[in-house]
Amino acid sequence: HGYPAYYWKGPFLAFLQIAPEQGLDAIIRLVNYATQRWLEDVGVRLTEEQRAKYGLEFEFAAKTVCWLGDANVFGWHRYLPNDGDAVEVALMALEKWLYDEVKAGRSIAQWVQQIYDRAESLAFAGVLVAVGMKYPGLFTKELQPLLGNLHLYECQTSWAVNESQEAWTIALSGQPQTVIQWAVEWHRMPHRRAFLRDNAPIL
């Protein structure tokens, strides 16, 4: 019953709440694995020199890291086709958990650093940018390294523009009223339609 994907499905949100370090590690490994399978579908076996052609580079603590993926991978927390529900749910749960941590006044610096240290997928940039769009001050602190790649703005803009189509409503047919209400609240959060390219210069 993974479709449609929502953050409350599966074990991921509870795992993060009960044992955050282990829960986050499990999500990182799952998404990294899925991204490697995505790359195989592209039909490419990469050398280290070629990796940058199939991802975006960021500098974390003076270390250059390439997160693999394209604009679609960037948006896996919003939609992942072809029976990718488990990965989509995991990323949505991570997004929800980070929102809750910030809302509760708890620092997410440790968790962002864990992602920087272990992630290999551009899908994590999608989640972290979403968190930054909801709480823009994070882009002046923990999330600032993400602002250094021009192509990230293009990925975010593309998804923000597509939000107006509300394709997610298709999956709500036949769902209980409570699920519909939660889904609408989740998908229609105002920051989803804002543009990072507008926020970053102000910050």
Features:
203 residues, mainly alpha, 2 strands
Notes on the structure:
The chain has 9 helices and 2 strands. A hairpin with a 2-residue loop joins strand 1 (55-60) and strand 2 (63-68). It is globular. The chain has a two-stranded antiparallel sheet with strand order 1-2. It is mainly α and 203 residues long. The longest helix has 23 residues, at 20-42. Helix 4 runs parallel beside helix 6 (123-134). It has helices at residues 12-18, 20-42, 71-74, 85-103, 109-118, 123-134, 150-162, 177-187, 196-202, and strands at residues 55-60, 63-68. The N and C termini lie far apart (41 Å). The protein is 52% helix and 6% strand.
Helix content: 40-55%
How would you state the average pLDDT, rounded?
93
**Anisotropy-based shape:** globular
Q: Write the H/E string, N to C.
A: HHEEHHHHHHH
The neighbouring-strand order within the major sheet is 1-2
Q: Tell me the β content.
A: 5-15%
Number of strands: 2
Layout of helices and strands, plus pairs?
Elements: H1 12-18, H2 20-42, E1 55-60, E2 63-68, H3 71-74, H4 85-103, H5 109-118, H6 123-134, H7 150-162, H8 177-187, H9 196-202
Antiparallel strand pairs: 1-2
Helix pairs in contact: 1-2, 1-4, 2-4, 2-5, 4-6
Describe the structure concisely.
This protein has 203 residues and is mainly alpha-helical. It contains nine helices and two strands; from the N terminus they run H-H-E-E-H-H-H-H-H-H-H. The chain has a two-stranded antiparallel ribbon.
